[in-house]
Design brief:
Elements: H1 12-30, H2 39-50, H3 57-60, H4 65-88, H5 92-107, H6 120-126, H7 152-170, H8 174-178
Helix pairs in contact: 4-5, 5-6, 5-7, 6-7
Length: 194
């Protein structure tokens, strides 16, 4: 026999979404839609000027123009595929969100050091209690400037530390892996018969 679920309020989310869109359009109309058409151009110029000094892969490889756009697009597609695969396994939601955060940091053409605070999301999902992983981002103090200034070692160091944090947060906790699961017998022992 199925238990009744919570009541479903259809349309509640759509109303809030519609009001949000209306407010955004009203705000843009109030300023005469100024800057709306020029925003993509502004982002391209910002990426071209700042990417080389950031901690991104685009900056590391010193890519510009079409090459930078192609790399970013390929990384974005790879992130989507990786998120889909991560969502399939055990703890799929946690792993998919962690991969999405890491992928967004990897695919962005401009990556400043303070963006890496987002790594605390995978850390918190993997280790809700204080553990050594929570202190891993302190390694970024070895390169404490917001701009890499084109320094290859700073960029590589930041990307490697970020990758290690993400990989460690995707691995199951040692205590969780060693703990027996409810309903399962220890190896070599049979479950008691009722």
């Amino acid at each position: 026999m199925a238990l009744p679920g919570p009541p479903v309020r259809r349309g509640a989310g759509h109303g809030a979404d519609g009001r949000g869109k209306t407010l955004r359009l009203a705000a843009l109309r109030a300023i005469g839609f100024a800057g709306l058409r020029g925003y993509p151009h502004l982002l391209r110029v910002l990426s071209r000027v700042e990417a080389v000094q950031s901690y991104s892969l685009v900056g590391l490889f010193r890519l510009e123009g079409t090459a930078a756009t192609v790399l970013t697009a390929l990384l974005a597609v790879a992130v989507v595929v990786a998120v889909m695969f991560a969502a399939r396994g055990p703890e799929g939601d946690r792993r998919a969100l962690s991969v999405a955060v890491a992928g967004a940091l990897l695919a962005t053409p401009v990556l400043w050091l303070h963006y890496l605070v987002l790594l605390f999301v995978p850390i918190a999902l993997a280790r809700p209690r204080l553990s050594a992983l929570w202190f891993a981002p302190l390694a970024f103090w070895l390169t404490p400037v917001a701009h890499s200034n084109g320094s290859v070692w700073r960029t590589c160091f930041a990307l490697v530390v970020a990758a290690l944090i993400v990989l460690r947060s995707l691995a199951p906790a040692a205590s969780a892996a060693a703990a027996p699961r409810p309903g399962l017998a220890a190896p070599g022992r049979a479950l008691p018969q009722p």
